[in-house]
C-alpha cells in the first residue's frame, strides 16, 4: 500500500485509555497520523488529549483532513460494538475516498452501509481482527536459534504492547536484529502485520502464533506481544494459546501498580504476583524451558516516588530487575533479556 | 424441529475412530439414525463398522435412505476439510429435501453449490461450529447451588464426552437431576444444544461456556464436556477457557492407557499424569475451589487384564477411584462425583 496518511477517529472517547489505539499510533507511528477526529475537541492538538502527537491537529470536519487516505477507528470500544455516530463518520470518510481500518470485533464489513459506500468509492474495508487463519501447531520448522521473548501480565491492559515495542527499539539501538511480533489490533496497525489472536477460533490460536513466529524467525530476537493473563477469567485461554504457540525462551511480567482487581471482572481479586509468575512459567515449561527475566511496572496512576518505591520493593521481593519503562526507561529490562539470551546461547554480547 | 431421522455420511472413513460422530450418534441416539452412507460397505449393518447401531443399515445409494430427513457428516476429517466426494453426496441429499448438518470447521455454508441446492430445496444447512457467540465472562448470575463437574484429560480424544454422557445417565438413574452440557459438535448433535467452543474466537470461549452453564443451571448437576488438555500445544487455550468459563466444583481426569505422545503432535511426550492433574487443579483453583475426584481410563487398545491392572495401579498411585467406563461401568466414578457434591453441600445423598 502507498504510505498511510491516517485519520484517527476517537469522537467522544478522546482520552489516553479509551483512545489507546490512537494514542499508540501517535506515539509509535507519528509520521503516519495526519489528524484526529473528535468534534468536541476540534481545534486542540492531539498531544493535549493523548500525551503524544505534538503537531497533529484534532479536527471536527472531514474537510479539515483532506490529505488523509485512510480513516481508522482509534478507540477500544466498551463491548466492542461501534457507536452509531462512528458508523456515519466512517461512511462519509469512505465516500470521500478513504480506506477504512478497524480493529474491533464488530466488523466494518458487517455494515451494509459501509460495504456499499466502499464499493461505490473503490476503497478497502480493512478489519484487522478478521482472519481466516486455520493453522494448527505442528512444532515443526521452528528455528531454535531465534530468541523468543514474550510479555505476560497479571491482568489485561497493563502495558505488554508498550513494553514489547520499547524493548524492540532498545534491542535494535544496541545492535541486535530485533523484531516486534504483534498479536493485537493496535500492534498490527503499528507494525503492519501480525495475528489478531483474540479473534481466532480456539483451535487455531496457538497455531496462528506459531506461524507468526515461524515467518519472522530469521530475526535474532522476536519480541512477541502478550495478551491478557492466565488469571483473567475472560481471556486466559487466549493467553495460554499464545504462550504455547510462541514457546518463549524468556518472559517479561507486566503489572500495573495499585491494580487489585481483574479488569472488567472487578468481583475478582488479582492473585499475588509471585503466584502469577510461577503459573506462567509452569505452563510455559510444559512446552519448553522458559523463565521470567524482568518485571515491567506500569505506574500510570502512581506518583513518581511511589513508582520508585515499588521498583525497589519488586526487585527485592522477586529477585529480578524491575522498571517502569515510561519513568525509568527500558534499559534494565533489556539488560535482563540479553543476559538470558546469552546464557542460553541464543545471543552474543554486543 | 420435527423428529430427526438422520443419514450419517461416513463414506470411506467407516471405522470407530474416524467415524466417531456416527459411532456416538449410533450409541447415544440410536433411535434417530436411519442409515449410514458408505458405498464400499453398502449392505452391511452399522454395528459391523462402528460397534453400535445393531439394526441400522449401511447404504450405498440415497434411494435406500428415503425416510431420512437430514444428512449429517459422520466423520472427523483430518485437517477439517470435507472431501470432494462428501460435498457431492451432501448436495444430492439436499436436493432430495434433506437438511444438512456438519460439525466441521469447513462450513457447509462456504460451498456455493450447497447453498444453492439448499435454497432450491428449501432445507437448512446447519453448521454446528458456526457461532456468533460474543459473550464474555461476567461471573455474575451464576447459581452456586448447581453442582458443576468437568471432564478433563491429558490429551485430546481420550473419552471425555463418553465419560460425561455415561456419568449423566448414571446420575439420572440414581435419581439426580443431571444434565449433559456439550462443548463439541458430536455432543451437540446428541444433546441438541451446546457450544462449539473450539470454533469460538479466543475472547469469547470462557464466556460461551459460562453462558452454557448459566442457561442450564436449574439442573442439580451439570456434566460439562471437556476438550483437549492444558498440556496439548494446539488446544490448551480452549481447555483453559473451558475450565475458567465452567468453574467446575469437581474434575474427572480422563486418559488413554498406553498413550505416550500428544495426539497430532507426536514429537511431544505427554507429561506424567500426576503433573497433569495438579496443573488442571491449580489453574481451576485460580477461579474457584475444585478437585479431581476420579480417573477415567480409556482402555480401547488394551487387553482386559491390562485395564484391570492399570485400574489398581492408578488407584494406588493417585489415591482416588479409577475405572474404564466401558469395562467397569461408570458407577465408581459417579460415587466419587456424588461424594464431593455432598461434601461441599451441593448434593444430598439419595
CATH T-level topology of the largest domain in chain A: Rossmann fold
Largest interface: A-B, 42 and 42 residues
Fraction of residues in H or I helices of chain A: 25-40%
> How would you name the CATH homologous superfamily of the largest domain in chain A?
P-loop containing nucleotide triphosphate hydrolases
Strand content of chain A: 15-25%
CATH architecture of the largest domain in chain A: 3-Layer(aba) Sandwich
The average pLDDT score of chain A comes to: 95
Largest sheet of chain A: 6 strands, parallel
With strands numbered from the N-terminus, the spatial order across the biggest sheet of chain A is 3-2-1-4-5-6
Q: Label the structural class of chain A.
A: alpha/beta
What does this structure look like?
The structure is a homodimer of 350-residue chains. Chain A has 350 residues and is an alpha/beta fold. In chain A, 35% of the residues lie in helices and 17% in strands. Chain A has a 6-stranded parallel β-sheet, sandwiched between helices. Chain A has a 6-stranded parallel β-sheet with strand order 8-9-7-10-13-14, with helices on both faces. Chain A has a two-stranded antiparallel sheet with strand order 11-12. In chain A, helix 4 (112-121) links the parallel strand 5 and strand 6 (125-127). Chain A starts with 5 loop residues before the first strand and ends in a 7-residue tail after the last helix. The mean pLDDT of chain A is 95. Chain A binds chain B through residues 80, 105, 134, 136-140, 197-203, 205-207, 230-231, 233-242, 244-245, 264-265, 267-268, 271, 279, 282-283, 286-287, and chain B through 80, 105, 134, 136-140, 197-203, 205-207, 230-231, 233-242, 244-245, 264-265, 267-268, 271, 279, 282-283, 286-287.
Amino acid at each position: 500500500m502507498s504510505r498511510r496518511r491516517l485519520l484517527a477517529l476517537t469522537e467522544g472517547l478522546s482520552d489516553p485509555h479509551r483512545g489507546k489505539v490512537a494514542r499508540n499510533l501517535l506515539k509509535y507511528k507519528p509520521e503516519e497520523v495526519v489528524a484526529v477526529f473528535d468534534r468536541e475537541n476540534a481545534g486542540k492538538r492531539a498531544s493535549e488529549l493523548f500525551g503524544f502527537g505534538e503537531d497533529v491537529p484534532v479536527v471536527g470536519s472531514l474537510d479539515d483532513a483532506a490529505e488523509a487516505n485512510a480513516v481508522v477507528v482509534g478507540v477500544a470500544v466498551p463491548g466492542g460494538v461501534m457507536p452509531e455516530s462512528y458508523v456515519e463518520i466512517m461512511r462519509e470518510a469512505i465516500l470521500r475516498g478513504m480506506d477504512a481500518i478497524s480493529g474491533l470485533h464488530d466488523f466494518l464489513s458487517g455494515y451494509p452501509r459501509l460495504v456499499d459506500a466502499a464499493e461505490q468509492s473503490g476503497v478497502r474495508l480493512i478489519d484487522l481482527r478478521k482472519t481466516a487463519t486455520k493453522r494448527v501447531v505442528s512444532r515443526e520448522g521452528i528455528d531454535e536459534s531465534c530468541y523468543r521473548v514474550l510479555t505476560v501480565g497479571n491482568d489485561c491492559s497493563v502495558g505488554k504492547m508498550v513494553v514489547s515495542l520499547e524493548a524492540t527499539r532498545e534491542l535494535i539501538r544496541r545492535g541486535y536484529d530485533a523484531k516486534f511480533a504483534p498479536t493485537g489490533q493496535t500492534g498490527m496497525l503499528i507494525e503492519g502485520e501480525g495475528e489478531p489472536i483474540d479473534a481466532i477460533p480456539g483451535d487455531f490460536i496457538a497455531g496462528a502464533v506459531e506461524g507468526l513466529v515461524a515467518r519472522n524467525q530469521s530475526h535474532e530476537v522476536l519480541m512477541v506481544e502478550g495478551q491478557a493473563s492466565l488469571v483473567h477469567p475472560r481471556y486466559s485461554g487466549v493467553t495460554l494459546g499464545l504462550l504455547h504457540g510462541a514457546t518463549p525462551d524468556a518472559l517479561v511480567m507486566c503489572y500495573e501498580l495499585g491494580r487489585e482487581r481483574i479488569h472488567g471482572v472487578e468481583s475478582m481479586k488479582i492473585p499475588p504476583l509471585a503466584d502469577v509468575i510461577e503459573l506462567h512459567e509452569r505452563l510455559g515449561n510444559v512446552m519448553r524451558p522458559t523463565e521470567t527475566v524482568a518485571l515491567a511496572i506500569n505506574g500510570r496512576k502512581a506518583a513518581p516516588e511511589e513508582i520508585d518505591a515499588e521498583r525497589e520493593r519488586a526487585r527485592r521481593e522477586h529477585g529480578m530487575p524491575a522498571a517502569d519503562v515510561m519513568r525509568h526507561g527500558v534499559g534494565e529490562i533489556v539488560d535482563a533479556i540479553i543476559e538470558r539470551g546469552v546464557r542460553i546461547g541464543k545471543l552474543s554480547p554486543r
